[in-house]
Amino acid sequence: MLQRLIVLPLIVLAAASPSLNAAAPRSFEFDSYQDFLKGKSSNVAIDTEGVLRLSNAAVEAGAMPESTVWCAATDAAGNLYVGTGFEGRVIKIAPDGKSTTFFDSEETHVTAIAMDGAGTIYAATSPNGKIYAISPAGKDEVYVKTEDKYIWAMVFDAAGNLYAGTGDKGIVRKISRAKEATAFFSSGDGNIVSLAIDAAGNLLAGGDTRGAIYRISPSGKALAIWSSDLREVRSILVRPDGSIIAGASEGRREGEPAIPPRPPAVVPAQVQVAGVTAEVTTTVESESAAGITFTPAGTVKPQAEKKLRGLLVQIRADGGVRELWRSDEDTIYAVAEAGAGRFMVATGSRGRLYWVSEDSRSGLAAELDGEQCTALVRFGRDRLLCGVNNRAAVYRLSDAMASQGTFTSHVQDAGWISNWGVVRWAGRGSAIGISTRTGNTPEPDATWSDWSVPMKNPTGEQIPSPSGRYLQWKASFAPGAGGESAELDEVTINYQQQNAPPRIPSVTVSAPGEVYQKSFSTGEGEYLGGDDLNGKGRADQQSGAPMGALTQASPQGKKLYAQGMQTILWTGDDPNGDELVFTLSFKQIEEKSWRVLKTGTRQTALVVDTTALPDGVYRIKIDASDEEDNAKAEAQTATRESATFVVDNAPPRISPPVASGSALAFVVTDTTSPISALALSVNGGKWQPLFPKDRICDGLEERVEAPKPQPGQLMVIKAVDARGNFAVMKVGS
């Protein structure tokens, strides 16, 4: 039937087919720190070697009637004082966990707390820039009213002067014992968000615009000792050896909700407890202070492009700087000493505490029930108090190991509904159980299965959860017989996708005669298939291709015209990544049966020489099969037909001329394509246009008149149809 056809190679696979297919088992593997950091921990620590174990116990220290924790301090008796919002109170939590309102301000936020040697609490409020003094007995007074809108940090020097980091003009205020407030340093930043006193009595101030730390001498002489690529220095911790630990952060993530207009939010503040500084935190979104944001529980945050969010550095006494820790996910809110050459870093927006050592090792110490860990206070030998936002809680972290803990992985996407195999894990200790649950929605909801009974055999146990596209696993930890924690450092989940049918998203019929020469052609006739970029061809309706789809690329060769050639292009994809083979068939639209054109091809472009076909209207049918990557009984197929296209290789017909006065009359006809042009030439001269009687060449029949040739003249009439076929007729001698 076809005398000649050219099957072209696939130009480009825009998204390459995966190496695995539906028949091949696959696995989810977890064996690194970064793998485990994507999950959620409860009393489970993760170190940088990718080992999970029980963490130190984190116990809620007391009830919090407020909604937000900004800052905290402890006194010698073990009472905890917490600055809160949105009611602007200081909550006192006794060692037995009993909480009472110690101070209730007129403002909406208590953004910083400091304590003097006599046990008097100094509470800074925003947005009116007041500092209150509250005696141990709870009697309060306005200590000073500054000229500033916000107060983000406070610290005492050895002489009893109180320094306040303020906004929104970036001024450090010095408040003497006589309650006189003066402008001690103007930074040029929008806000001063952290303060500390170094061993030489200099004031250290962190800004929120240039990411700089300023060292200001007692006389007021300032020097920038370090600056970061990030916007703000939220935490400054001075160590006994004279070095400085600084935590820098970026502002609010793009896409995260801003703080509501009432009340304004708050940034990092500095606390002084009996002469020891510790970082706390506060924020003002509307004034572009430190940019802390608060996300209501359950809010889904949009994905944002990853960039550096938090940076912890050590600045030596000689001015040298060493990076200790960085994160693309977590924003630093506070830093505190953790003992043994380690620091505890409080972060958001996942409520995580990280430990970081002087030699740059780090790990996840705890994940608390709250979006942001905003305040850290070290008290005693084995107590670290941490305040969290979004549910306003204070946790006590001790050196004692938790009695139990869980780690829940992030949701795993198998890409298609799958059958689950075995789960294996590696580690130390037998007090580990692995549970699973599955579903067909990206986020676990009521349609998911319940958690399975914990599996106990680390060498491999069949996953009992039902088939589904998504899976989540959970590891339960308990101390061993000797009191030590079990450790987990590798988990493997095996699965096999159920075979899904392939798809043919598009079939495109290019304009008649439109072909493309191969980029490295070795001669004429080597054509390259390509998409119809100029809209001259016709394509049927296309649906969106899923991830992993195989798509046809734009043509790379020179566009050519080849009379009688018809280019067909199609795309195919398979949800399982199976390799597809195609069968092509054709028929005229009035026919019932398809005729096979090509079988078993992996190519997605075809050029057909239509001169081997009768004139008419045709369709191409493409059948796709994934049989090569699946058992015969499980193979799946898909079918798609092209839009109709016309095959027209017959030229127009020109009737014999009929004399009509001084002219000759002709009738030009075509059975398939309309007449597109008429012309005449005299004695081999230039073709001159002829027009039919209705002045438009657009019908299957056109009537035309031409002048009679003079004696001895040779006149030739030419008729062309829409497919480029033409006929000529000689008139005269």
Walk me through the structure.
- This protein is mostly beta strands.
- The protein folds into four domains: 5-20 and 501-647, Immunoglobulin-like, CATH 2.60.40; 26-39 and 406-497, Sandwich (Jelly Rolls), CATH 2.60.120; 67-308 and 315-331, Neuraminidase; 653-732, Immunoglobulin-like (Sandwich), CATH 2.60.40.
- The strands form 13 sheets. Strands 2, 3, 4, 5, 29, 30, 31, 32, 36, 37, 38, 39, 40 and 41 form a 14-stranded antiparallel beta sheet that branches. Strands 1-50-47-42-45 form a five-stranded antiparallel beta sheet, with no helix packed on it.
- The protein is elongated, with a radius of gyration of 39 Å.
- Residues 1-19, 252-304, 521-525 and 529-556 have low confidence and may be disordered.
List descriptors:
single chain, 733 residues, mainly beta, Immunoglobulin-like, Jelly Rolls, Neuraminidase, 14-stranded antiparallel sheet, five-stranded antiparallel sheet, 1 helix, 61 strands, disordered N terminus
Task: Look up the CATH topology of the largest domain.
Answer: Neuraminidase
Q: What number of domains? A: 4
pLDDT < 50 runs, ≥5 residues: 1-19, 252-304, 521-525, 529-556
CATH homologous superfamily of the largest domain - what is it?
TolB, C-terminal domain
Helicity, as a percent range: under 10%
- The CATH class assignment of the largest domain is Mainly Beta
Number of continuous helical runs: 1
Largest sheet: 14 strands, antiparallel
**Cα separation of the termini:** 42 Å
Helix-strand makeup class? mainly beta
- Alpha carbon gyration radius: 39 Å
Whole-number average pLDDT?
84
User: Could you say which overall geometry the principal axes of the C-alpha atoms support?
Assistant: elongated
> Proportion of β residues?
over 45%
Number of strands: 61
What is the CATH-assigned architecture of the largest domain?
A: 6 Propeller
